[in-house]
Write a structure and sequence with these properties.
Length: about 350
């Protein structure tokens, strides 16, 4: 070591812990550097950025004090000084006796702090606002912040951009970006009509939008086919941001769960014995009343109720609703105004050519 003589180190603005067994203490390097202390923190067995061997020391008032290194931190050995050492040894002041307040020392005013936070704050993807403005055609910052709330940022990092050696892909790496997405939470459940349809369908899977009241139904030959209804819903309507179901085995099975993971769909479940938490129960009751009313009024055979479900569901999505401020569920979900010209006939109406 350059100097093995003991020194008295004076550390101002520090916490004192009175314990005879305390043999180490941490110091803030920047606080000491503000007082003129110089640190060389490169270990002796390593090279600094200039290619020189590390000095592993701190310099206080032109006195070199060697530092020890245990592989994790730099340190000096300390002990309680004797009364004689307090009177005779040279005192080296490491930190200033003035209060240490970085904001006051640097005289950073409120405007500067806000500008610093704005500049270095991380937005989606870990990017700064300046970078986002460049990517979004230099739009105003307030517009970009509102855009973050009105859009999704599901995949900001692409593996191919981070790999040293590119890799071929035979499947889409982001299938959830390829499909259309709908901004609503859909509740789903299976219901069982008392009559089998002409196509041997024994049940139906209903999807009901919580905020949009949009309804999608799929008649099934068996409850085990509910996963195919989920796939058809995603293909024909879109990928919802969340699906809430009860704890039916078909709705918590591997296929259902893997599909939700693949397309980044949040899954939620109702509490046991609380069926009213599933809004699709309300949709099932409303659809059942529409089907019974139409089947009775139009004299349709009972085994045709599967077709009637599909027709009533499509009609309902085109009907104005008081809950939606007299707008239609289809418009609320997709933004498209439905056209009633497609309803040229009622259900089970005789058509002559």
């Amino acid at each position: 070591m350059e100097n093995e003589d003991p020194y008295l180190l004076l550390v101002n603005q520090a916490c004192y812990y009175e314990n005879d067994k305390q043999n180490e203490s941490l110091i803030h390097p920047y606080q000491a550097m503000e007082h003129g202390v110089t640190f060389c923190l490169t270990p002796k067995d390593k090279l600094n950025p200039d290619g020189e061997t590390g000095k592993q020391k701190m310099v206080v008032d032109e006195v070199n004090i060697p530092l020890l290194y245990d592989g994790r931190k730099m340190f000096v050995r300390i002990r309680r000084p004797t009364d004689n050492e307090l009177m005779t040894l040279e005192k080296l002041e490491i930190t200033s006796p003035e209060p240490f307040n970085p904001e006051t020392d640097y005289q950073v005013d409120n405007v500067t702090r806000r500008e610093t936070r704005r500049k270095y704050k991380q937005y989606p993807g870990g990017l700064s606002m300046e970078e986002w403005r460049k990517r979004l055609a230099l739009a105003p910052e307030d517009v970009i912040r509102k855009t973050f709330e009105a859009t999704t940022q599901l995949s900001m990092s692409v593996e191919a951009e981070n790999r040293l050696v590119p890799r071929q892909h035979y499947k889409s790496r982001f299938p959830f970006l390829r499909e259309k997405r709908v901004n609503d939470v859909f509740h789903s459940d299976t219901f069982f009509p008392s009559v089998t349809t002409s196509r041997n369908e024994t049940c139906s899977q209903l999807f009901f939008g919580k905020d949009t009241d949009f309804m999608f139904v799929k008649p099934l030959k068996s409850e085990s086919h509910s996963f195919s209804a989920l796939q058809d819903f995603g293909r024909e309507i879109g990928i919802p941001r969340c699906i809430k179901t009860d704890n039916a085995k078909t709705e918590i099975g591997n296929k259902w769960t893997e599909w939700c993971r693949k397309y980044l769909v949040t899954t939620k479940f109702t509490e046991p014995h609380h069926p009213w938490q599933n809004y699709s129960e309300q949709g099932i009751g409303e659809l059942s009343r529409m089907v019974r009313r139409c089947m009775t009024a139009f004299g349709a055979p009972l085994n045709r109720h599967g077709w009637c479900q599909l027709w009533c569901c499509r009609v309902r999505n085109s009907l104005a609703s008081r809950k939606l401020q007299w707008r239609t569920p289809q418009e609320r979900l997709t933004g498209d105004t439905p056209d009633l010209s497609v309803f040229r006939f009622h259900f089970w109406q005789d058509i002559e050519w």
